[in-house]
Write a structure and sequence with these properties.
Layout: H1 6-16, E1 26-27, H2 29-35, E2 38-43, H3 53-61, H4 66-70, E3 73-76, H5 80-92, E4 96-101, H6 106-114, E5 118-122, H7 129-140, E6 143-144, H8 151-170, E7 177-181, H9 186-198, E8 203-209, H10 214-221, H11 245-254, E9 255-261, H12 263-277, H13 287-293, E10 303-308, H14 315-323
Amino acid sequence: MNICDFSDIEGAAERLHGVIRETPLFESMKLNQDVGGRVFIKPECIQRTGSFKIRGAYNLMSQLSSEEASRGVVAFSSGNHAQGVALAGQLLNITTTIVIPSDAPSAKIEKTKDYGGNVILYDRYKENREELAREIALQKNAVLVPSYDHKDIIIGQGTMGLEIMQQSLKFNVVPDQVLICCGGGGLSAGSAIAVKELSKKTDIVLVEPKDYNDTQKSIKNRLRVRNKSSKKSICDALLADMPGELTFSINKKLATDVLTVSDDEVKHAMRFAFLYFKMVVEPGGAVALAAVLQNKINCVDKVTALVLSGGNVDKELFAKIQRAS
């Protein structure tokens, strides 16, 4: 029996209807010309809270019992899941406490507070965020809402993959390949289930920062491998220590390949998105676009879909990256 079924994702889509934004699927003539094929872009950077994370957070939290909800929830996040949990809490009248790294973009920290989240900062290089969050949850007798390794989170994120396939049909196409960013693996795992259910022939390609390629190494070794925490990357949303247990069990089965991109390649993709799509995309949200722009995957005469997974970036960093073009 599968951990998550396609019917679960359909149920989550109904739960999320009217809560999330159904982000569009669009083409760029410039990008199509550059790669020699059709590329459809899914901009979750314009989703509520600026990333796909609200999908999983709301899906889980909306199913809590009234007794569980009354105790509040605790989450740990680099910032995007934090905002998703905080907004879900605001909508559902659930108290939220979120553990966020002190070096997370200030925009993510401030927006989490704006949504009513109680923020607790920690040092990502010296402290373990999961242990810290579990300790706080124990003290508060609150429910822990993981950022990716939970069935209801994976199912909620999978609604994005469902939308891609449904929207593709409106263009009378079926993607040959779908490129999805990968940190802990929740978005890719959930979306892969939906995509593969609707098109067995569509390849699922994951994209990671080159120094945080734990999923790539894990799939190669057939077991979960941890990243070396000494490395740094501007892709703060994708700096998971290692793949989730549930997410890895799905991704190793459904993913066709895992690609990696450098920070410089990501910066180029951010500039491209702003220039040609008129969209602000955060570093972690631009990795799939970076892989396509750098020809790390063949798009010639193919139909490709890719995800811009988030747009929460500090304005100073974004301006600096744009000026460097």
